[in-house]
């Protein structure tokens, strides 16, 4: 998040520098808005240019690309805007060098001036901003994971049903108390000392007959 904010600020600063550069002097006191876009492909001429068909036009397009890239957090779109600004500025420098015979930097204003510096700096700031941005890759992967189908729950087969608590098998007792069960003495019959339930004694045998 912090990288996206920092990269967006740097890219927007570059866009502002680029879009303001045509209103400053580019070469020998001539402002960037005085150069027509078509002169970049046919050769620099001394003809005046309207604002909307001057060097301002591609820079405005690059500024719109930067805004779109910042909104959708796309590093590719922001980098493309920086390449547009640098490409048109370098193409202008090539055409101006062909028209003037050479490109010079002079302190008296007879060579390259601050407008070109603003344009080049703007394009570089856009590229730096694109590198600083983290983009939306993580969010895209998270969205794909959320869209992945979830396998439905498959109920176990009838012979694999797991119940709790476990069922009691025949001949087995289930202990529910934490204490051990007392051992039961085997049954040995009634107690002969018990007056209420005397032990059963077989009748005496009959007397022998004479």
Characteristic terms for this protein:
210 residues; 6 helices; 2 strands; two-stranded antiparallel ribbon; mainly alpha
What would your notes on this structure say?
The chain contains 6 helices and 2 strands, in the order H-E-E-H-H-H-H-H. The chain is mainly α and 210 residues long. It has a domain of 135 residues. The protein has a two-stranded antiparallel ribbon with strand order 1-2. A hairpin with a 2-residue loop joins strand 1 and strand 2. The longest helix has 26 residues. It is rod-shaped.
Nearest-angstrom radius of gyration?
48 Å
Helix and strand element order:
HEEHHHHH
Cα(first) to Cα(last) distance is 124 Å
Q: What portion of residues is helical? A: 40-55%
- Let me know the largest β-sheet: 2 strands, antiparallel
Strand residue content: under 5%
- Chain-averaged pLDDT: 80
- Low-confidence runs (pLDDT<50, min 5 residues)? none
**What structural category characterises the helix and strand content?**
mainly alpha
- Our count of helices gives 6
Side-by-side strand order of the widest sheet: 1-2
Envelope shape: rod-shaped
Number of strands: 2
